[in-house]
Amino acid sequence: MWGSYGYLKGNDGCLALQSFTGNHGVDMFPKQYVAATSLSAFFDVVHGALAHGYLPAVKPPSLLVGAGCRRAKLGLVSGHAYSVLDAASLVSGAKLLQLRNPWGDGEWMGPYSDHDASTARWMETAGMSLLGRKIAKEDGKFWMPVKDFAECFGDCYFVGTNRYVANTTMDFHEEFGTCGPCRGCVGGTVDYWCCLQGPRLTCAPERRGTLTMMRDAGLQLDKAGWSVSRYHEAGGFAGGTWNRVGWADNILAPRKDDDDGDEGGSPPAPDEDAVIELAPP
Questions:
Q1: Where is this region: Disordered (predicted)?
Q2: Nearest-CA neighbor of 30 among 177, 150, 143, 133?
Q3: Structure pTM?
Q4: Of 154, 149, 80, 66, nearest to 112 (Cα)?
Q5: I want to staple 81 with a disulfide (CB 3.0 to 4.6 A). Which of 73, 171, 274, 276 is the partner?
Q6: For residues 5 and 279, is the Cβ–Cβ distance under 8 A?
Q7: Is 115 helix (H, G, I), strand (E, B) or coil?
Q8: Alpha helices of the chain — where are they, by DSSP H?
Q9: Per-residue pLDDT tens for 67-84?
Q10: Which of 136, 141, 157, 64 lies closest to 98 in space, CA to CA?
């Protein structure tokens, strides 16, 4: 793409993910969304978007999640794109997000990081319910409190992908502590074999619009702080209006229990647009 990754100077991370998947994106602006709802509500959306806490009868989302940093603080790089990998709610009440710097280094150095002595053993006290483990060398991955995330990151974007057998994951049920993985194994096995999720996803991968997945993940559609981004409406990018994918036009599928069949919409996006740097200086 334009020669190589090294030639990229910067652009919109959400647009890049839409170009790869063909689906539309949903931009969340943490500061505005938290002001309209609460910090806990924002965390619940991200937590749900990463396929946590779903019952077997509910289809979990399959989303790519990224974030653009707007404030350089404690190791974070301003104007830089990060991927959001995981979310965890600890018994102590702390709510954490796991991010990765695509450079492979340059990590958050605040609370719950590898460099914070006061919370250095939090993974040990959390037990086996977390997917990650403390590593001895810097690899670009780090955990940070959701409060600091909302302060430092100007936008958090989500783009839906096909859900098929290769990217099906198991919910570790962090809320149950050390019993979480056992519950996840039993529930995942029942769902995969008894409920025929594995064969079904192998033969017929799911295609759902990003906003539909976000609504199912807990996004409050009547609140400010989010917007829909469609790459085929961005003139000159990703083929412009000529590069149209069928499922990108189906912005919001109606719920089965919706009487009016409203396809929904979104409030206008905030005026500020973060410029995301993709390549290291």
A1: 252-281
A2: 150
A3: 0.70
A4: 149
A5: 276
A6: yes
A7: coil
A8: 13-21, 30-36, 39-49, 122-126, 146-152, 180-189, 197-203, 210-217, 246-249
A9: 999 988 999 999 999 999
A10: 141
**Packed helices 39-49 and 210-217: angle between N→C axes, nearest 10 degrees:** 120
Amino acid at site 153: F
DSSP readout, 203-241? HS-B---HHHHHHHHT--TTSSSEEEE-GGGSTTSTTGG
Counting every residue written for the chain, the total comes to 281
Structure tokens at 280: 């290291």
Give CA separation, 102 vs 28, 132, 156, 201, 278, in Å.
21, 17, 16, 30, 9
Tokens of 252: 């919001």
Question: For the chain, which ranges sit under pLDDT 50?
Answer: 1, 55-57, 127-135, 235-249, 258-281
Whole-number Å distance between alpha carbons of 261 and 13: 32
Check residue 159 and report its DSSP letter: E
Q: Which two tokens stand for residue 33?
A: 């969304």
pLDDT digit string (tens) for 110-168?
A: 998 877 777 766 665 554 344 444 445 567 889 999 999 999 999 999 998 876 666 67
| Cα–Cα distance measured from residue 95 to residue 87, given in angstroms and rounded to the nearest whole number | 8
CA distance 14 to 238: 12
> How many other CB atoms are found less than 10 A from the CB of residue 7?
9
Least Cα distance to 217 among 36, 46, 14 occurs for 46
Query: CA nearest 15: which of 64, 77, 55?
Result: 64
What pLDDT, on a 0 to 100 scale, did the predictor assign at position 251?
62
What is the residue whose two structure tokens read 């999640």?
65
| CB-CB contact of 172 with 51 (8 Å) | no
Contact assessment for residue 71 and residue 86, using Cβ atoms and an 8 Å cutoff? no
